[in-house]
Amino acid sequence: MIDKGFIKEAIHCYVTAIRLMPKFSAAHSNLGSVFKEQGKMQQAIAHYQEAIKIDPSFADAYSNLGNAFKEVGQAEDAISCYNTAIKLDPNYAEAYANLAAVHKDSGKVMEAIELYRKALRLKPDFGEAVANLTHSLVSD
Fold first, then answer.
1. CA distance 15 to 20
2. Rg (Cα) of the chain, in Å, rounded?
3. Do the Cβ atoms of 71 and 41 come closer than 8 Å?
4. What is the mean pLDDT of the chain?
5. Exposed, middle or buried by CB within 10 Å (0-12, 13-18, 19+), for 108?
6. Greatest extent of the chain over all pairs of C-alpha atoms, in Å
7. At what angle do helices 127-139 and 93-105 cross, to 10 degrees?
8. What are the two backbone dihedrals, phi and then psi, of residue 58, each rounded to the nearest 5 degrees?
């Protein structure tokens, strides 16, 4: 729904799902992603945190929360979230790439390069990681 521009409909569906099933962690995480796309970061963070509260083993929600924290400039909180996502799912290539991006942004290029390489070992066709690794190697 979101990809086709049906933001209001997506929000309505997720809110309805949450109302009917308050412990549906994926609905909270997905609603958080809609709010993040709209730039409503505090609402996004609140829904990601609720998803985690409901399901503390939800690696994707931790990674999403990390993305929101990164967006608002809370790098240390983002790093903590990505590390938790990786601990929960050691094969989560996107979490490694997200963690790499935070390190790259903070000037820790060598750490970023190693994390991008780890992401690519897990998911060799991960185009975004290839591009960011290449950029990191050129920047170093």
1. 9
2. 16
3. yes
4. 94
5. middle
6. 51
7. 30
8. -85, 85
Spatial CA neighbour of 113 closest among 122, 121, 103: 103
Q: Model confidence over 5-37: pLDDT tens digits?
A: 688 888 889 889 999 998 999 999 999 999 999
**Crossing angle (nearest 10°) for helices 41-54 and 59-71:** 160
* Among candidate residues 55, 67, 138, the one with its CA nearest the CA of residue 101: 67
Tokens standing for residue 30: 């997905």
- Distance, first Cα to last Cα, the chain: 40
Cα 24–Cα 74–Cα 104 angle in degrees, nearest 5: 110
DSSP 57: T
What's the fold here for domain 91-140? 1.25.40
User: CATH says 1-90 is which class?
Assistant: mainly alpha
Q: What is the pLDDT of residue 1?
A: 44
State pTM to two decimals. 0.89
Residue ranges per domain, the chain? 1-90, 91-140
